[in-house]
Design goal:
Two copies of one chain form a homodimer. By secondary structure, chain A is α/β, with parallel strands linked by helices. The first copy, chain A, contains nine helices and ten strands. The longest helix of chain A has 14 residues. Chain A is globular. The relative contact order of chain A is 0.20. The interface between A and B is large, with 47 and 47 residues.
Chain lengths: 223, 223
C-alpha cells in the first residue's frame, strides 16, 4: 500500500492512497449530454451545464490513467423490455416527462443497445477500465460495483458525472454507507440547473464534514 | 389490497394504499433532540429546529396507528466497541467534531444502551411496532429493514425524522432505488440549519419528480 497524500477540500483534508483509489465517471451518456440525445432533443433541456464539465472530466481521466487509478464508467440503463426497472422508477420518470424507453432521435431513452444510452464519444474507455450498466440511481444497486471495488482493494472513490443531485449524490451516499471514502469533484459534476447541482453540494457539505468531502479537480490534478 | 388514495405533493400526486404503507420515524434520539443530548449539551447546537417537528411527528404516528399503518423507528447507533462503524464514518464524525462514542451527559454518543442513544421520551413505540438500530445513514444498510418491509408487503413509505439531509435523505434515496415509493413529509423532518434541510428538499424536488415526492403532514392527516 502506497503512502497517502492529502487533498484539500472545502472542509477537512482528504487522505488518499492512489493504489486504493478508483475514479467513477457517472452516466456521461448521449441521452443526457448529446445535442441529439433525449434530454436536449426531446425534452428541450439546456444541456450546456452538462457539456461544460466534459473537458475537465477528460483531464481527470487522463490523470487517473497516468497514476494507475482505476477508471469506472457507469450508464443508467435498462433492458429493452424494462424488466429491470422498478415500477416506482417508471412512474417517477413518467411524472418527470421522460418515460423510460420513450423514443428519441438516438433510440429509446436509456435502453441498452441504443445510441442514446451509450457513453458520449468524448469518453473512450480502455479495455482495462470498467463499464457498468445500472438500473437505479445508486451505482451500487443491482450491479457488481461493490464486488469490483473489493476485488481491486479499492477504498477511496473520486466522483464525477451527471447529474449531481440524482445519480452522483445517490451513488456517493451509498458508497459512504458501505464504508468507502468518497471525494466529489464539484467542477466535474453537473445538473440541468445550478440550483439542483448546488443542493447536492450543500447536502454533502452538511454537518461540517459528517456526510462527505467536496473539492475541485485542480486539487486532484496537482497530485 | 385496499384501493389507493391520492395525496397532493409539491409536484405529482402520490397514490397510496394504506395497507401497504409504513411510516418511518428516523433517528429521533436524545443525542440529537434532547437538551442534555450530545448535539445540544456537548456541541452547543441549537436543537430547536429538531424539537419543533416532534408534535407533528406524534400526530402522524397517531394517524398511522388509527389507520393500521406500520410504524418503524430507527436509531443511528453502534456497539460499544464500535466494531460496526466503518473507519470512514468514524473519520467523518471526528472531522465534524462529534466522534462516535465520545462522552456526553447522557452517555457515549450514539452508543447502544446509553440514554443519549435512546428514542426521545415523546415517542413511545407499541410492542407491535418496529425498532431498528442502524450503523449507516441509510436505514437499509446492515439492517433487516428491507426484509421487514417485504414481510409486511410494504411498498410505500412515509419519511419523517432527522436530519433531513443526512439519514432521512440517505434512507429515502436508497428506498427509491430498492423500488419503494417514498413520500417525504417536509414539516416532519428537520436539520440543524434551514439551509441543510432545504438542500435535501431541493434534491428530492429535482428533475421534476424523477427523484421523489415531497408533501406536508396535513395532506396525510386529511386522509
Amino acid at each position: 500500500m502506497s503512502s497517502s497524500m492529502l487533498i484539500q477540500t472545502h472542509q477537512h483534508p482528504f487522505a488518499i492512497a492512489l493504489d486504493r483509489t478508483a475514479l467513477l465517471v457517472i452516466d456521461l451518456q448521449n441521452d443526457f449530454c448529446h445535442p441529439d440525445g433525449f434530454c436536449s432533443s426531446v425534452m428541450g433541456a439546456d444541456i450546456a451545464p452538462l457539456r461544460n464539465i466534459i473537458p475537465r472530466v477528460q483531464a481527470v481521466i487522463d490523470w487517473a490513467r497516468q497514476h494507475g487509478v482505476l477508471v469506472i464508467y457507469t450508464r443508467e440503463s435498462h433492458k429493452p423490455d424494462l424488466s429491470d426497472a422498478a415500477p416506482s422508477k417508471k412512474l417517477r420518470y413518467e411524472n418527470a416527462g421522460y418515460p423510460l424507453g420513450a423514443p428519441g432521435k438516438l433510440g429509446r431513452f436509456l435502453i441498452q443497445g441504443e445510441r442514446g444510452c451509450a457513453l458520449i464519444d468524448e469518453l473512450q474507455p480502455l479495455e482495462t477500465e470498467v463499464q457498468l450498466d445500472k438500473p437505479a440511481h445508486s451505482a451500487f444497486v443491482s450491479t457488481a460495483l461493490e464486488a469490483v471495488l473489493r476485488q481491486h482493494n479499492i477504498t477511496h472513490l473520486l466522483f464525477t458525472g451527471v447529474t449531481t443531485e440524482c445519480c452522483v449524490l445517490g451513488s456517493y451516499r451509498h458508497a459512504s454507507d458501505l464504508g468507502f471514502y468518497g471525494l466529489l469533484l464539484e467542477d466535474c459534476c453537473a445538473a440541468l440547473s445550478l440550483q439542483e447541482h448546488q443542493a447536492a453540494i450543500d447536502v454533502l457539505l452538511g454537518e461540517n464534514g459528517a456526510i462527505g468531502w467536496v473539492t475541485s479537480s485542480d486539487r486532484v490534478l496537482a497530485l
